[in-house]
Amino acid sequence: MTGERTERTGYSLKIRALHDVAVDLVTCESDREVFERAVEAAAELLEFDQSVIYVREIDRLVPEVVTGSEVVPEDEVPPFDLDQGAIGHAYQTGDSILTEDVQTDEVSEPISPDIGSGLCVPLGEVGVFNAVSDTPGEFDEEDLALGEILAAHVTTAVGRIQSEAEIRRQKRELERKSERLEEFASILSHDLRSPLSVASGWLDLLEADATDEQLTAIGNVERALDRMETLIDDLLVVSREGWTVENPRTVDGQRLVADAWAGGATDDATLDCEWSGTVRGDPDLLVQAFENLFRNAVDHAGPSVTVRVSPLEDAEGIYVADDGPGIPEDERDDVFEMGVSNDGGTGLGLAIVERVVSAHGWSVSAGESEHGGAQFEMRFDGGTPEGNS
After folding, report:
1. CATH class in words for 249-379
2. What pLDDT score was predicted for residue 389?
3. Separation between Cα atoms, residue 364 and residue 360, nearest integer Å
């Protein structure tokens, strides 16, 4: 009984020691550092003769770290195919393998006649922990359990390191994207607007002495310049970093619609606003979205279009409807895609609407108005409307 108690005490001490190793692994900054500390623990604490950590590289399991050369010299430890031997089997199945006699085992493919026994413990997608001895039957179930505890600590540590590395990579990528967006916005704001202003100025000078035929040509150029100006405005909105509403405010619906109408409609257009509610949101983004909806109505139905803004009857939300030609049913799901336009427009206006609406936690869909025109429904599903009457 005393011998059994001593063995249990020794096993418990090894488990505690492995937990101390887990604490050490938390401070490791690379996979290699984790592997080296793990095989050191296998030699010093678990008293394994030789340990190898195999790491997957494409279609092979390559020996990354080897400790002890009593059984097989370090430079003679070869890589394994993913399905080769006990090491490949452990990796493929995710099951640990304890082999009492490697030389006679059907699964094992011993790399040396000096190997007597061994154990293989998978490290998830990372690879395999392998321990060997020159004596058959050297390892028992307790050794396997200890190896599995060590392997679990290794897998956790490597997962943490890889997750942190991925977070750093994503952060760097976001920083690079942010820099590119800032550069892009600067080009749009200055390098492209300036030539447009110069061109508009020259057109004003030419208009003074132009013939009727020349005025027609000048009008065509002015419309092209206006379209370029709209495109620049839309691209600036699209390049805005982040589409989230961090500090929502109470926005009056009628004031919102009026401000957007002033920027997106024409003098000949008619507005019928029956929405007197309020919503919580970003006023600037919402004005931009409604401006784009009104501009879309003018572009498709003409300058004398009639637009109605009214609450939905069956849900929290509102709709914006016009009396234009409408949107073909088979195209309604695509109108919010970036770059989609069937009339030579920028293809950005409705995409911006969808982004703004989504940023507020709402949804938007395209349909047909009672007059056969286009109707866009905003549903405040995830937002916080304060009134909708």
Report:
1. alpha beta
2. 46
3. 11
Would you give the DSSP letter of residue 116?
A: -
Minimum mean pLDDT range among 296-305, 307-316, 377-386: 377-386
The secondary structure of residue 332, as a DSSP letter, is: T
Long-range CB contacts for residues 79-85, cutoff 8 Å, separation at least 24:
79/54, 80/54, 80/109, 82/56, 84/109, 85/109
Q: What is the CATH number of domain 2-167?
A: 3.30.450.40
Domain assignments of the chain as residue spans, ordered by start: 2-167, 176-238, 249-379
Q: Which of 330, 160, 135, 341 is nearest to 234 (CA)?
A: 341
Higher-pLDDT residue of 139, 245 = 139
CA distance 273 to 320: 9
Give pLDDT, residue 260. 92
- The edge-to-edge listing of strands for the beta sheet with 127-133 is 80-81, 60-67, 50-57, 127-133, 117-122, 97-99
- Where in 13-81 does DSSP place strands (E)? 50-57, 60-67, 80-81
φ and ψ of 235, to 5 deg: -65, -35
Please provide the average confidence, as pLDDT, over all residues in the chain: 87
Helix count (H) and strand count (E) of the chain? 9, 13
Task: Determine the pLDDT at residue 386.
Answer: 54
pLDDT band at 26 (very low <50, low <70, confident <90, very high): very high
252 DSSP β-pair partners:
278
Phi, psi angles (nearest 5°) of residue 65: -140, 135
Question: Can you state the angle between helices 141-186 and 31-44, rounded to 10 degrees?
Answer: 170
Rounded-to-integer distance, Cα 48 and Cα 55, Å: 20
Strands (E), the chain: 50-57, 60-67, 80-81, 97-99, 117-122, 127-133, 249-252, 270-273, 278-281, 306-311, 317-322, 363-368, 374-379
- C-beta separation of 322 from 305 below 8 A: yes
- Model pLDDT for residues 306-347, shown as the tens digit of each residue: 999 999 988 899 999 999 999 999 888 888 887 556 555 556
Contact 39, 67 (CB under 8 A): yes
pLDDT in tens, 69-82: 778 988 889 999 99
**In this structure, what token pair is assigned to residue 179?**
């820099």
What order do you get walking across the sheet with 306-311 strand by strand?
270-273, 306-311, 317-322, 374-379, 363-368
Evaluate if residue 300 carries a pLDDT over 60: yes
